[in-house]
Amino acid sequence: MFKKLLFLLFAAGMLAMLTLCVSADGGEVYTVVLDPGHGGSDPGTDVGTRYESDYNYTLALLLKEKLEANGSFKVVLTRGKNEYKKYLERALVADKANADLLISLHFNSNVSPAPNGVEVFSSVLDEWSPDSLSASIADSISKKCGLKNGGHKKQKDTGDSRGVYYWNEEFGWDVPGVRAERVSDYYSMISWGTKLGFPAIIVEHAYLSNKNDLKFCDSEDGLRLMAEAEAEAIISYFTGHTHNYQSSADRKANCCLEGIMSEKCTVCGHRRNVTRSATSPDSHLWTVDSRKVTCTSDGYVYRECQISRNLSEKGMTGVKLHTQTETVSSPGHLMVTVTDTEPSHGNDGIFKEQCSVCGHVNEVITPGDPHVYTVVTSTPKSCTVNGLEVYKCTVCGDSYELTYPAEGHNYVSGDEVLSCASDGTKEYTCTRCGDVISENIEVPPHKTSLTIDRAPTCEEDGLRRKVCTVCGYTEDQILPKTGHDYGKGKIVTEADYFAEGSRKFVCKNDKNHVKEEIIPKKPGGEGIIIAWVSGSVLLLVIIILPFIVLGRKKLKAVSAESAVMITEEISENATSEEEVEEEDNVKC
């Protein structure tokens, strides 16, 4: 019994939870259109290991898989794997699917390797900007994938050849140059979403130009983890609240597009019970060009529908440019008479009228009787005086003058040939009046020949003379004497320690000029004599000394007993001093 009670309580709880879940999302299906950016002939950036279009498409498939696995999402792709489509064609896929949201998938790049992380862009128009979803996607990818959170951003239009585009509140469309309105969006996919009636965002998932971001995107599980993080944010945005539906005019019918009505959730923008109304052929968003009418040209007002222009320029099938032209016919001039005089003698009649609108003037001249003029005074012109003719009418006496300006002098020079003998003036004669003027001129230089009357010598100056062959002008120039150049001279007798020498000099400029110079004897001669004498004495001592020593030894050896004999012998040896000296010399 207790077990049955527990079962019933459990069943009741499950039923209550099921009831809450049904009330939360009502079993709704949320339509999300994924737009893999670029594709086909437009590969996008190529800074990664493959083209951006490949990253975009791979991520789109992974995100589609994650959303559809939830069971509450219908996911549509705007293009095939290698297919190229224009922005409008992609947006029309979302329009046909009654999309709750269009997400354009991209990967960023920069010329600098530093920027990194995820960034999400949405509309600058608050009513078409799911700000909380944009911020949630950036935050979820950043946390789950370890990438920098670049945040939620908006970009206003910067203009083209027609100017900056502004949002027209009445038609729900943007037009160029209407500054009273809010500035429209810069990015085309977001702009097309606002005009077709659904929110669109752009997710730049990472920077392929940053090595760390690229490494994550090229890892085996990187893109799958990125798709999972993005799916979680999208699912939470659409299902994590109780829907509050209100009737909504998502798009007003206009000359080219049907109107769209739906019941839209005020929290997430989910649409249900979407209905479409017929186009409104007369609902044009005109841009106007005009030309004012003038008195001579027609004016016009030219209108061009901005809605049809956008759609036709961007390739929507079956749409042509809608225009209107109104012509305003020219009314012609509104002329008012200004002058009206009759012709008379010497005076023309004048009729003049002017347009009071544009100022155009018409004038008619009626000739009067002409004057009969004769010359009463005539003064011819000259080089310096103006000519004058006075004319007077023979009928009325009216007169007028004609002045002929003076011609001025026409001076030419004579045929004389100027030379160094001229006086430094040149005359010019006027060919009209004969007036003569003179001019100081620079006389041509002398044409001189060079002669040397006397060449300079060592001791006398020379003379150089120039004589003009035209006028005989003479110019003397003193040539300074050259002076002696004896050089180093030549030694005639060498000087030594005991006698002076001599040197002879001969002038190189004139060999007749000769001089001699005494060369002093070399210093130190007395010292040499003393050294020679000292050396000789020393040599004599060295030679005699051994004999003296030998003689002393012999004297010591003689005994006392033979002293008498020695004395006798000495006496005999000393008989003649000359003989002894002679004997010593022989021994030496």
Would you kindly provide a brief summary of this structure?
With 588 residues, the chain is α+β, with helices and mostly antiparallel strands. It folds into 7 domains: 22-242, Aminopeptidase (3-Layer(aba) Sandwich), CATH 3.40.630.40; 286-328, no CATH class; 335-366, no CATH class; 373-404, no CATH class; 411-440, no CATH class; 448-479, no CATH class; 540-571, no CATH class.
Q: How would you explain this protein's 3D organization?
A:
- This protein has a six-stranded mixed beta sheet with strand order 2-1-3-9-4-5, sandwiched between helices. A three-stranded antiparallel beta sheet has the order 7-6-8, with helices on one face.
- It contains eleven helices and 30 strands.
- Helices cover 28% and strands 30% of the residues.
- With 588 residues, it is an alpha+beta fold.
List the helices and strands and how they pair.
Elements (H helix, E strand, L loop, with lengths): L1 H24 L4 E7 L15 H19 L2 E5 L9 H10 L4 E8 L9 E4 L9 H15 L3 E5 L11 E4 L4 E4 L5 E2 L4 H9 L3 E8 L3 H7 L4 H18 L5 E7 L7 E7 L5 E7 L8 E6 L7 E7 H8 L9 E6 L6 E6 L8 E7 L5 E6 L6 E7 L7 E7 L5 E6 L6 E3 L11 E6 L5 E5 L7 E7 L7 E7 L5 E6 L10 E4 L7 E6 L7 E6 L5 H33 L5 H11 L3 H11 L1
Parallel strand pairs: 1-2, 1-3, 3-9, 4-5
Antiparallel strand pairs: 4-9, 6-7, 6-8, 10-11, 11-12, 13-14, 14-15, 16-17, 17-18, 19-20, 20-21, 22-23, 23-24, 25-26, 26-27, 28-29, 29-30
Helix pairs in contact: 2-7, 3-5, 4-7
